[in-house]
Design goal:
Length: 274
C-alpha cells in the first residue's frame, strides 16, 4: 500500500476529511465536488465491490491490516495513517471503526436502466432524514427490492450517515434519482413506461389494505414512501395507481418511513413470489 503517515490535522492532504460535522461544508465537498465518505473497512469493501473508486483512505495504525485486505486492487491509492486524536480532530467525533475513505462519486444511471430488470422497487419522496434513508436502503436490500429511486429533494443516500446506517447496502441495491413528477419525461411517465404499478403508502379514505394489495400484487410494483411528518405530496399521490395503508392498532396511525418500507416490502415481495 501507499502509506503516508500524517501527524498534523491541518495537513492539506486531509482536506477531504476535515470538518465532516459541518453540513454546509459536506454538501460542497461531496455532491458538488464529486466525493462521498465511506466509513469502516466493511463499507469500503462494499463500495469497491460495486465498482466505486477511492481517492484516498484515512486510517489509524491498528486498522491497516483491514485496509490492506480490501484495497488490494488499488495499490496507488494513498492511505493516510493518523493518530486517533488527529482523526477525531478532523471529523469532530471518535472514529470508532478506524477507517474513512474519500470516494469518487459515480454518475447516476438513467431511471430506465435501473428499472429494466426490476419487479419490486422503492420510491423515497423528499425524505430529509439521512438515518431513515439509510434504514430504508437496508430494508430494500434485506427484503428483496430490486431498485430504489429517490426524488430530487430526498436526502443523499451517499451521505456518511446514510451509508453507515445502511451498513453499506446503498452500494448493493441499484438506485438513481427521479426527475420531478410531472412532464413528458417526468417520474410518473418513466415509471409507467417501465410498466410499474405505483402503490403509495398513505392514509386515505379510499386506501386499500396492505393485506389485500399484497394478496395479489401486480407483476411490477413501485412502493412510494413519503417524507416524515408531511407524508406524500399531492403530485406523488396523483401519480399513484393505488393508495395502500398498513393496518394499525393501539391508536397508532402510521409507522416510521423505514419501518413502513420494510413491512410493505415483506408483504408485497411475498405476494409476488406466490
Amino acid at each position: 500500500m501507499r502509506i503516508e503517515r500524517i501527524e498534523d490535522a491541518t495537513d492539506a492532504r486531509l482536506a477531504d476529511y476535515r470538518d465532516l460535522t459541518d453540513v454546509a461544508l459536506r454538501r460542497v465537498l461531496e455532491p458538488e465536488g464529486g466525493l462521498y465518505i465511506a466509513e469502516s473497512a466493511k463499507v469500503l469493501a462494499r463500495a469497491l465491490a460495486a465498482g466505486h473508486v477511492p481517492r484516498s483512505v484515512l486510517a489509524q495504525e491498528r486498522w491497516l491490516p483491514d485496509v490492506e485486505a480490501v484495497l488490494g486492487a488499488h495499490p496507488d491509492v494513498p492511505v493516510y495513517v493518523v493518530p486517533a486524536a488527529v482523526a477525531e480532530g478532523l471529523t469532530g467525533y471518535a472514529v470508532h471503526r478506524g477507517v474513512l475513505a474519500a470516494m469518487h462519486r459515480p454518475a447516476l444511471p438513467p431511471v430506465g436502466h435501473v428499472l429494466r430488470d426490476a419487479r419490486l422497487a422503492v420510491v423515497l419522496e423528499d425524505i430529509v432524514d439521512h438515518t431513515n434513508v439509510g434504514a430504508a436502503f437496508r430494508a430494500a436490500a434485506g427484503l428483496g427490492a430490486d431498485a430504489v429511486l429517490v426524488t430530487p429533494r430526498c436526502a443523499d443516500p451517499l451521505y456518511r450517515r446514510s451509508v453507515r446506517v445502511s451498513m453499506g447496502t446503498v452500494f448493493q441495491v441499484p438506485w438513481t434519482r427521479l426527475p420531478e413528477w410531472d412532464g413528458e419525461d417526468g417520474a410518473r411517465a418513466q415509471l409507467a413506461a417501465a410498466g410499474f404499478h405505483v402503490a403509495a403508502l398513505a392514509l386515505a379514505d379510499d386506501a386499500v389494505s396492505l393485506d389485500d394489495f399484497a394478496a395479489d400484487p401486480p407483476a411490477r410494483v413501485a412502493l412510494l414512501m413519503g417524507a416524515e411528518g408531511d407524508g406524500l405530496s399531492r403530485r406523488a399521490l396523483a401519480a399513484a395507481d393505488t393508495v395502500v395503508t398498513i393496518p394499525m392498532s393501539g391508536g397508532v396511525d402510521s409507522l416510521n418511513v423505514a419501518a413502513a418500507s420494510a413491512v410493505a416490502l415483506w408483504a408485497v415481495g411475498r405476494g409476488q413470489r406466490g
